[in-house]
Write a structure and sequence with these properties.
By secondary structure, the protein is α/β, with parallel strands linked by helices. It folds into two domains: 5-183 and 276-394, 3-Layer(bba) Sandwich (FAD/NAD(P)-binding domain), CATH 3.50.50.60; 188-231 and 233-273. It has helices spanning 18-29, 54-62, 66-71, 109-121, 172-176, 235-241, 243-254, 305-326, 331-365, 374-381, 387-394; strands at residues 5-8, 11-14, 34-38, 51-52, 75-77, 79-84, 87-93, 104-106, 126-130, 133-140, 143-151, 154-159, 162-165, 182-184, 188-196, 205-210, 213-219, 223-231, 271-273, 277-279, 284-285, 288-290. The strands form five sheets. Strands 7-6-16-17-18-15-19 form a seven-stranded mixed sheet. Helix 1 (18-29) runs parallel beside helix 4 (109-121) and helix 8 runs antiparallel to helix 9. It is globular and about 65 Å long. The chain starts with a strand and ends in a 16-residue tail after the last helix. The chain binds flavin-adenine dinucleotide. Flavin-adenine dinucleotide binds next to helix 1, strand 3, strand 10 and helix 8.
Length: 410
Amino acid sequence: MENRKTLSTRVVIAGGGPAGMMCGFLLARAGIDTVVLEKHKDFFRDFRGDTVHPATLNAIYELGLFDAFRKVPHQELRDIAAEIEGVPYPVGDFRHLPGHAQFIAIMPQWDFLNFLAEKAKALPHFRLLMEAKAVDLLASGDRVTGLVAETPDGPLDIAADLVIGADGRHSTIREKAGFKPLERGVPIDVLWLKLPRQESDPEAALGRVSAGLLFVMIDRGTYWQCAFVVPKNGFEAIKAQGIEKFRARLKTAAGFAANRIDAIASFDDVSLLTVAVDRLPQWARPGLLCIGDAAHAMSPVGGIGINLAIQDAIAAANLLWQPLLRGKPTLGDLNRVQARREFAVKVTQGLQVAIQNRIIAPTLASTAPVKPPFVLKLLKAFPILRTIPAYMVGIGVRPEHIHAPDRANR
Ligand SMILES: Cc1cc2nc3c(=O)[nH]c(=O)nc-3n(C[C@H](O)[C@H](O)[C@H](O)COP(=O)(O)OP(=O)(O)OC[C@H]3O[C@@H](n4cnc5c(N)ncnc54)[C@H](O)[C@@H]3O)c2cc1C
């Protein structure tokens, strides 16, 4: 008989992204033995969003880690703006937000995850297994009792009172649990690319809009992280037309940065984000809970996926640390996480889908000059109103606060 390696813990979390790392940290801090599995050997990989929003920063403050966080190199974004047919419109101003952070921190996601991992690894109840890929669930009857991981040392069976699927929008855990997401139709995809930044460039994050073009630029210090929005499955047609044609469109889209499009030498410098918006009707079954993108993939509109994933993690820890101290959480305990978070997810996805369908798709299809929506004129005329979009993006619906206690060293 094969001599399989085994491990026993209270909670095993598949996925060391923002949701998994934050949830693992909070549960271990509350004194619950937690193992987080990450399939990659480090956090250093493709761009997946670099935004740490005020709601997340408030949680970091509540954890007493705000000063340490701000020592990690980052930029602090206080304004978002749009430029329509060359005319600038201020959209969001974070300076008047309630709470401890009046900015979005722009920090490479791997630095943020390394920061969380470093803090978590100092806790006696936390264990992070890198290069450990969850491939299947262990079950006894209907109840999930653990998972199977592939590791460099061979397969590992991990028994746990709770399995958390935080393995992102292509989640293995949700598939093995038999969960099927409800998908919302999405009319767009996004091409990500980088353009050099110059000292004289504006400081705000910019959405540049003109007939048939939508281009977002996020200041990353030495470069602009840019999103070129295309119709769904439009990248193949763009590639078929060739790089020169794409660069010509990029030149129009990039405005003040048009003189730097040489940075895009080929389509190797462009990566495709296939935009998906979906949501599980049921996030839990006995012994298992999905959170973050595994429970609901978000559109890139507003750049709020990381924040929502973190808010799920906080809610899960708030609601589950006590049941876990008592023993195995019941399905009722797990369903309370979905009940707490689903409203925020539905409202946010509803807004994202409305923006995609009513603003972004018609803009991409238009050949006539784009007229600014009335709301942008209002925001230009009344600066105080700019706090509202900043609140929606930075704090969002139903922000969570840390209630799971620090019992780490008991
Ligand atoms: C190109 C791109 C740009 C984006 N830009 C932004 C942005 O600007 N702002 C924003 O807020 N959001 C952005 N997002 C979305 C954001 O990345 C996600 O919403 C967020 O990371 C979700 O966090 P998560 O922890 O739920 O999942 P993920 O971040 O996807 O993390 C899942 C983790 O699980 C690991 N994993 C997967 N399968 C397994 C397995 N079987 N076993 C073990 N580990 C596994 C993965 O390697 C990964 O580390 C972007 C996404 C993409 C793809």
